[in-house]
Amino acid sequence: MRTISTSWQEIINVGQYMMTYGLAWGNSGNISKRIDDDTMLITGSGTYMGHLDETDLVKVTISSGWYDGGGKRPSKEIPMHAAIYKARPDAGFVIHSSPFWTTLAACSDLQIESKLFIESMYYAERIAYVDYYHPGSRELGAAVGENAKEANVIILKNHGLIVFDTSMQEARMCLETIEMTCKMAAITKMTGLNPAVLGSDTARDFLDHSGYKPPRLW
């Protein structure tokens, strides 16, 4: 029970943090945490990210999508979250949101480059794009799961983004970093600045020897 209770609190804290710092708005987005190999906790349908409590979270079986129908309905985005957990055994925490600058990138031709600064290289190591599919659809889940094999930041065209990492802290930092990176990309395009992109060899050397944690396995 302690593991589940701690997981509830982590999700609640992240929801409040996202609303406080403009990383979510209203009831847009959803959060989940893996609590064992085949179980995740996910925010309920229509929940307000800034006012979550334990009753807003639903335990879902990853392999089947089954949940206890006696309580709150889980987010319709179960297919995306489950697909990431299936594709990435290292994924422990998943955040789907639509912060302004990242959603602007998702709704435009703005291309995002991760090899700009330390945090973008590390937290937004690989960025993928998924074409528009209706929220909650199996098609969207399948596309996200396939791209999760090769990217830890997935921009959903005309929708938002979904990120994942080993822990709550790492996933939250990933979300913050991609929002900052998208803001930088948009401003440089609007102002005509030319960003200085680091080379692939430099980025790879940094990731291999940064010492923060073992490199991601792709």
Automatic annotation (TrEMBL):
Keyword Repressor: no
Signal peptide: none
Keywords: Lyase, Metal-binding
SUPFAM superfamilies associated with the record: AraD/HMP-PK domain-like
InterPro entries: Aldolase_class_II_sugar_metab, Aldolase_II/adducin_N, Aldolase_II/adducin_N_sf
Ranges for domain Class II aldolase/adducin N-terminal: 9-186
Keyword Transmembrane listed: no
Taxonomic superkingdom: Bacteria
Protein name: Class II aldolase/adducin family protein
Organism: Paenibacillus terreus
